[in-house]
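2024-03-11 09:14:02 DEBUG pipeline.ingest accepted 1 chain
2024-03-11 09:14:02 DEBUG pipeline.ingest length=559
2024-03-11 09:14:03 DEBUG pipeline.predict start
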Amino acid sequence: MARQKLELTWIGKDQRPRLEPRILLEDPARSYHARQRVTDKDIFDNRLIKGDNLLALKALEAEFAGKVKCVFIDPPYNTGSAFTHYDDGLEHSIWLGLMRDRLEIIRRLLAEDGSLWITIDDNEAHYLKVLCDEVFGRSNFVANVVWQKAYAPRSNASLISDSHDHVLVFAKAKPNLKFNLLGRSAEQTAKYKNPDNDPRGPWKPENSSISLLSGQRGKQYAKTGVSENVFEIVSPTGVKHLPPANRCWSFTPSRYKELVKDKKIWFGSDGNGRPSVKRFLSEVASGVIAQSVWLHDDAGHNQDASREMRDLFPGDPFGTPKPEKLLHVLLHIATNPGDLVLDSFAGSGTTGAVAHKMGRRWIMVELGEHCHTHIVPRLQKVIDGQDPGGVTQATGWQGGGGFRYYGLAPTLLATDRWGNLVINPEYDAAMLSAAMCKLEGFAYAPSEALWWQHGHSSERDFIYVTTQTLSAEQLDALAEEVGAERSLLVCCGAYRGVTAAQAAQRWPQLTIKKIPKMVKDRCEWGHDDYSLNVANLPMAAPKPGAVPAQDDLFGEEGA
C-alpha cells in the first residue's frame, strides 16, 4: 500500500498572497555611522528596514537570495490577544498562514550552509515544527533547543510554572551545515587532571565500553554471538575484567595492546579498577559541541533582558525583549565574523545589537514605531561605544561601524479616479527604473555612459525604462546603439508607427513592452499590510465588552 504523505492542514492554507516586490528607499537622515573607524573590520553596510516584514522579505529576495548565513526570528507567540474577535480555530489558522508565507521566503534567502532559529513557546511550538518540516523538509530539522527563560516559579502560576521557550533549528541543507563549538568552561576544563604526572599533561578517564547491541556491531553479534571486542583484561594488580552485560570494549585486543604500550589505559589510583582510556586535554577540540538544553547561566533569561532594556531606556523599556546572551550563544554557534544575519521580527533590536558587537553583518525588519523609539537609539549607542551592558564586555566591543535605514517604497501601481491602474505619481524616473528592474529580474545599475542601460541580467542583456511614447524613428536609433550582439528590454509608456509583429521583425535585439500593462496582473498592488490577512474569513460573535485589538501581529518580539 502506498505510504500516505502527512501534512499540516488549516483553514485558508491554499490562499497565498501575490506579493509586490517593492524597492527599498534609504532615509539618510535616519542612517547612522561612526565618525571614525575603530578597526579595519568595521562594518557599515548593515540594514534596518521599517515596514511590513512580509513585503520587506520579498523586497530583499532579489538581492539576497542564497546569501544569508543565519536567520533568527522571535515571532509573536499567538497567545490570542491579537484575535479577540475571531474563532479559536481561525486564530490558529491565521497564525500558521502568516508564518508559512514568511518561512518560504526565508528559506530562499538562506545560504546553502545557512540555518534558521525560531524562538517560540508551547502555544504553537509543535505546530510550527510540523510547518517547518513542510517548508524545509523533515531531513533538515536540526534540533529543538530548550532555553531556560526563567529560573524561579511565577507567583501567579496555577498548575506548572512555565520556565522555558523552544528554539527550533532548521538547516537550508543539513549536509552542508557546520556549527562552531562552544568555548570550554572552567568547570569543564577542571575535569582534566594529572594524578600520575603524565608528561603529556592533564587528562580525564573515558568509559572504555560501548553497546554490543546497537548498529552494525549489534547486527553482527545477533547473527554470530561472537565479538572481537569481548575479551578479558587483567589489571596490573591481577584483577580480571570483562565488559558489562550487553556491552563490549571500545577497542580490539590489538588496539588495547597499543594503548597499554602508549600508557593510555588507567586502572584507577590503586590499579584494581575497570580499565578506562586516558583522554588528554591537548588532544580534544578547543571547545565543546552545543547541547539542546540552554540554562539561564549560559544563555541568559528574561530578567536579564528586562534589565538590559531598563539600562538602555530607563523611562521607556521594551516589553518583551530577548537577552543579549541568548543571541550571543546562538550567533557564535551558527555564524562567523562577516557572515550575514537576518531578523525580520526585530522588536527591540537585540539581534542587530549583538550581531554588530560580534562583527557580523545584519539586516533587521520592524514595522512598529519602536523601530524609531528603541532600535535606532539602541544601535546608535552600540556604534558610539556607549552601550556597556549585554555582551559588550564578552565581545570586547568598543564601537564603530554603522547601518543604513530603509523604508518600503509605496506601491508601484495606484488606482486613478476612474478605477484604472496607473503608475504611482509618487514614483520618479529612478524609482520607476529600479522597480521595473526588480519586477523583471534585472539588477538595477544605471550606466553613466549609456543612457538606455538602466540595469542588466547578464553581460549582454539590458533593460531601459521610460514613460514616453516611442516612435519608430526613436526605436530605430535605439536598436542601432544596442547593436546585434546585445539585447534590450524596452519598458515604455507606448510606441507608435509599427505593430507588435512588425516591431519584433524589425528590431530583433529589442523586446518592447508597455507599462503598466506589462505588469498590472503580476501582483497585489496597493496592499501595504500583510500582518492580519483575514479577508473573507467568517467573524465570530464579539465577546461582551471586548475591545478591538490594535496591536500589529508582526510588529513586536514574541512575549
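2024-03-11 09:14:41 DEBUG pipeline.report The two ends are 46 Å apart (CA to CA).
2024-03-11 09:14:41 DEBUG pipeline.predict end
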